[in-house]
């Protein structure tokens, strides 16, 4: 049985005409009912004094967007100043900048891929441009997953070049319109809906296939829709309303139904080796994308070589990571997995550190399971200098995994935060590029919840949820500072925990 459809509005270039847009949205909602979200592609901000004055009214709270609105980044150098960071953030209430590129997934499971700006024509890229590295970082983790079928929605400002092939002709100059990089992106991501703007035109292409007939099993179709500028004098369509059930909860047979007007894929490559060459270029580019490990700005309490580390809390030391008893832990077996070198968050880790961290996670799951406990992990990349992956055991007889998930969701909502569920095939790095503040939970079912921190965030949120009456029922232990032990007590507890964990410690075997 399919879930309730999500009601979505998509909009073309707003160019600062916020009141015109939102008045139109309110009129539509008054007539047809509430929509769940508004997605804006193209240039959202304007450069005229009138546009800037209008934006100021939203910044000061005089006016408010009537719907959750998600926008792309600058499509020209003139509007870059309106974005405080290349990373996504809430600009004002109900208006959120998605970010440079990434995957946005709501609790419903609706998956939206996005790329801001225009294709860079030279190096170094200007602030309003995306690069091949941006697209590689978005695409590779998805297409390398054998279960990947596509995304629900793709948002780009530029059109994909050649999208009109085999389809109806748009009213644009096809010699100059669009980006080949966006075309390649659309081919790889197989969106069910793809929205773009910037050309001042409205164009709804006939849906196209994402498979080769008689050679591949049927896939869903893609609908490409380009939207015009808000309040354009020619009255071209700039708003598009539709209902969508997330791919992950759809009946597969319904998902792959082919409409009568479906066409061939405009981006299909005739030569097989050309396809392989394209895939190889993504793979090679992915190998080149490397983040330099940061160095601590001052004394670090968690770098193992640091004199500040409380080494009496260490349980196990691997090649790249180590395990430590949590100071002021929620329970006696509450531990931390930490990188030996200095990394701020999971998304900064090199591949070898990630691999060893996974080994520690697996060992701890087995350890807890032997004691009738489930393993819950969380990370807060906010007001922290060194990655601390918190690992907390929860007795199986206290609650179910669903209870824990619900507790996180409910307590997040109470604090006006929306935890998103991350699909298994989505790499956290695509949702939270390095430097992005976030909170992340991994349940024992391998379900993952994520919140991109936008403003203030309760530092003890993870502990507060697990300590609540619904889970561990130890609310007085929510703050680690209230759970401190003497050094002698810590040494004794750590020694006991070290001995208990030893049979599961792969580092001991090595």
UniProtKB/TrEMBL annotation:
GO biological process: mRNA splicing, via spliceosome
Coiled coil: none
Domain Cwf19-like C-terminal: 290-397
One Gene Ontology CC term in the entry: post-mRNA release spliceosomal complex
CDD domains cross-referenced by the UniProt entry: MPP_CWF19_N
Disordered as annotated region, ranges: 258-280
Cwf19-like protein C-terminal domain mapped to chain residues: 415-506
One term of GO molecular function: RNA lariat debranching enzyme activator activity
Pfam families (UniProt xref): CwfJ_C_1 (PF04677), CwfJ_C_2 (PF04676)
Similarity section: Belongs to the CWF19 family.
Name this protein carries in UniProt: CWF19-like protein 1
Organism for this UniProt entry: Takifugu rubripes
Gene: cwf19l1
């Amino acid at each position: 049985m399919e879930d309730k459809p999500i009601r979505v509005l998509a909009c073309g270039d707003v160019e600062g005409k916020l009141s015109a847009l939102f008045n139109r949205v309110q009129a539509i909602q008054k007539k047809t009912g509430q929509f769940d979200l508004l997605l804006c592609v193209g240039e959202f901000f304007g450069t005229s004094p009138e546009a800037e004055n209008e934006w100021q009214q939203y910044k000061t709270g005089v006016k408010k967007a009537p719907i959750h609105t998600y926008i792309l980044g600058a499509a020209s150098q003139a509007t870059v100043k309106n974005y405080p960071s290349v990373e996504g953030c809430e600009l004002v209430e109900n208006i959120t900048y998605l970010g440079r590129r990434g995957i946005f997934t709501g609790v419903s499971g609706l998956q939206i891929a996005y790329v801001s700006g225009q294709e860079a024509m030279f190096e170094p890229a200007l602030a309003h441009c995306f690069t091949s590295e941006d697209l590689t970082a978005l695409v590779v983790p998805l297409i390398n997953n054998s279960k990947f079928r596509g995304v629900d929605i793709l948002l780009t400002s530029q059109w994909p070049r050649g999208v009109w092939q085999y389809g109806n002709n748009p009213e644009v100059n096809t010699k100059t319109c669009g980006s080949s990089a966006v075309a390649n992106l659309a081919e790889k991501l197989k969106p069910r809906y793809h929205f773009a703007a910037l050309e001042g035109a409205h164009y709804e292409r006939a849906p196209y296939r994402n498979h080769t007939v008689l050679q591949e099993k049927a896939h869903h179709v893609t609908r490409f829709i380009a939207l015009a500028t808000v309040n354009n004098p020619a009255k071209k369509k700039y708003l598009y309303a539709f209902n969508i059930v997330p791919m992950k909860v759809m009946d597969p047979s319904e998902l792959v139904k082919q409409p009568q007007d479906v066409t061939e894929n405009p981006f299909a490559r005739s030569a097989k080796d050309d396809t392989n060459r394209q895939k190889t270029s993504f793979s090679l580019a992915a190998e080149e994308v490397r983040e330099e490990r940061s160095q601590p700005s001052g004394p670090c309490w968690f770098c193992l070589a640091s004199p500040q580390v409380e080494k009496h809390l260490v349980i196990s030391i691997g090649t790249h990571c180590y395990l430590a008893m949590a100071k002021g832990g929620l329970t006696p077996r509450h531990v931390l997995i930490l990188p030996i070198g200095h990394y701020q968050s999971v998304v900064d880790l090199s591949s070898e550190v990630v691999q060893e961290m996974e080994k520690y996670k697996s060992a701890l799951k087995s350890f807890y399971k032997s004691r009738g406990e489930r393993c819950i992990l969380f990370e807060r990349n906010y007001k922290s200098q060194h990655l601390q992956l918190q690992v907390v055991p929860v007795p199986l007889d206290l609650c179910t995994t669903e209870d824990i998930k619900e507790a996180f969701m409910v307590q997040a909502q109470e604090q006006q935060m929306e935890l998103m569920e991350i699909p298994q095939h989505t790499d956290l790095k695509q949702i939270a590029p390095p430097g992005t503040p976030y909170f992340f939970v991994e349940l024992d079912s391998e379900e993952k919840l994520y919140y991109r921190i936008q403003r203030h965030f309760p530092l003890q949120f993870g502990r507060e949820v697990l300590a609540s009456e619904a889970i561990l029922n130890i609310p007085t232990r929510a703050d680690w500072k209230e759970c401190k032990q003497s050094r002698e007590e810590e040494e004794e507890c750590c020694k006991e925990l070290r001995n208990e964990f030893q049979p599961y410690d792969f580092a001991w075997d090595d």
